Amino acid sequence: MKIKILLVEDQKLMRIGIKSLFNDYPEMEIIAEATNGKEAIEKTKLIKPDIVLMDIGLPDITGIEATKQILEHNNNVKVIALTSHITEEEVNSSLQAGVSAYVIKDIATDFLMTIIKMIKIGAMWLDPKVVPFIRDKNCGHIPARQLSRSVFKERHSNLTQREYEVLKLIVDGQSNSDIAKTLTISEHTAKAHVCNIIQKLVVDDRTQAAVKALKEGLV
């Protein structure tokens, strides 16, 4: 069954661009679009999407306020903030409103699709750029238990130093090709490191590895 998505974005060119990203992902479908917060609220009630991709900077009410109202009416829908806004106030307000993920618009397409699938089944994801805001506030929207880097390494001592470097790049949303270029290694070697990390952290994929690293305080 396809993941049904409502896209909320006020800029037409941005809507066209985001919508085109889904052409190669038949398991997902943007079933409707909204250009402002009020329209997003009404369309969510009408079409009952699985996921709302929500811009924050909307022309009437903000995406944050729209998220609050959407979830008050239907807490089964998942809202992903897809935005270029990264201020501390906006991040914390979005989490308090109930977003399941806070994603910056420069994210790699494959990684965005993986996050959508992850959110659909009840997980949560935060862009690494905004994690310090959450820790500083200790607002409880991510697990309060944060391990030190040394404790993390002690618990996952089977990871090599190179695998730690690769894991950090996975958290940053880099693809195998990007990792290879960053570390000046072959793409085959990068892929091998990613596979080793997934096995050693006992997770199913690179996104879960990134989430585990964030939750346990590596980054």
Task: Describe the protein.
Helix content is 50%, strand content 13%. The longest helix has 14 residues, at 187-200. The chain has eleven helices and six strands. With 219 residues, it is of the alpha/beta class. The chain has helices at residues 12-20, 37-47, 63-73, 88-97, 109-120, 131-137, 149-155, 161-171, 176-183, 187-200, 206-215, and strands at residues 3-8, 28-34, 51-54, 78-83, 101-104, 125-126. It is elongated and about 50 Å long. It has two domains: 3-137, Response regulator (Rossmann fold, 3-Layer(aba) Sandwich), CATH 3.40.50; 149-215, Arc Repressor Mutant, subunit A (Orthogonal Bundle), CATH 1.10.10.10. Strands 2-1-3-4-5-6 form a six-stranded parallel sheet, with helices on both faces.
* Name of the level-1 CATH class of the largest domain: Alpha Beta
Sheet/helix structural class: alpha/beta
Bulk shape: elongated
CATH topology grouping of the largest domain:
Rossmann fold
For the largest beta-sheet, the strand count, sense and barrel status come to:
6 strands, parallel
Residues in helices, as a percent range = 40-55%
Our Rg estimate from Cα atoms comes to 18 Å
Order of helices and strands: EHEHEHEHEHEHHHHHH
Fourth-tier CATH superfamily name of the largest domain: Response regulator
Number of distinct helices: 11
Kindly estimate the percentage of residues that lie in beta strands according to DSSP: 5-15%
- Average pLDDT, all residues: 85
Strand order across the largest sheet = 2-1-3-4-5-6
Distance between the ends: 35 Å
